[in-house]
């Protein structure tokens, strides 16, 4: 963050919910950027996945460059119909990969994104239905 004061930083905090749609028939290993850090940094409190199909979908999660293999930090599995049928809950990165999140001073789980740093996903197989992905993001 470029601010020298936590008071200033938290006083200027704004919320956003960037989202992307991965279409049915998207080829395997297609990388999709979900969000990037704001000019003065951002924190991600969660990334939510809604699966419109009945089959599970696996995603590789990248933080930072998608051309660097070590930035592919975890693979998660999104249940079929997650968040789409009133029975199966939305899939949550915070629940599926809690170790990716740091704790802030208030005890909240967050991923800090410096300016321009991205979080991206790559489906590991061709998608049979659309998947919606939304980041819960706070910008400084």
Notes on the structure:
By secondary structure, the chain is mainly β. It has a single domain, classed as Nucleoplasmin core domain (Jelly Rolls, Sandwich), CATH 2.60.120. The protein has two helices and eleven strands. It has helices spanning 6-11, 93-96; strands at residues 14-16, 19-22, 31-36, 42-51, 57-63, 72-78, 91-92, 102-103, 109-113, 118-123, 131-139. The strands form two sheets. Strands 1, 2, 4, 7, 8, 9 and 11 form a seven-stranded antiparallel beta sheet that branches. Strands 3-10-5-6 form a four-stranded antiparallel beta sheet, with no helix packed on it. A hairpin with a 5-residue loop joins strand 8 and strand 9 (109-113). It is globular. It starts with 5 loop residues before the first helix and ends with a strand.
Number of domains: 1
- Unreliable stretches (pLDDT < 50, length at least 5) are 3-8
Write down the overall mean pLDDT. 89
CATH-defined architecture: Sandwich
The helix count comes to 2
The shape is globular
Category by helix and strand content: mainly beta
The strand count comes to 11
Biggest sheet record: 7 strands, antiparallel
Q: CA-to-CA gap between the ends?
A: 8 Å
N-to-C order of helices and strands: HEEEEEEEHEEEE
How much strand content do the residues show?
Answer: 35-45%
Secondary-structure topology with pairs:
Elements: H1 6-11, E1 14-16, E2 19-22, E3 31-36, E4 42-51, E5 57-63, E6 72-78, E7 91-92, H2 93-96, E8 102-103, E9 109-113, E10 118-123, E11 131-139
């Amino acid at each position: 963050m470029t601010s020298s004061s936590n008071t200033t930083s938290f006083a200027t905090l704004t919320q956003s919910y960037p989202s992307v749609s991965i279409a049915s028939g998207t080829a395997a290993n297609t990388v999709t950027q979900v969000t990037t850090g704001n000019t003065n940094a951002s924190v991600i409190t969660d990334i939510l996945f809604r699966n419109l199909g009945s089959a599970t979908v696996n995603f590789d999660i990248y933080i930072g460059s998608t051309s660097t293999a070590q930035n592919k930090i975890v693979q998660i599995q999104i249940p079929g119909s997650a968040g789409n049928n009133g029975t199966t809950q939305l899939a949550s990165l915070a629940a599926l990969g809690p170790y990716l999140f740091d704790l802030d001073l208030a005890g909240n789980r967050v991923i800090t994104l410096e300016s321009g740093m991205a979080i991206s996903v790559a489906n590991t197989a061709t998608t049979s239905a659309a998947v919606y992905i939304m980041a819960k993001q706070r910008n400084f």
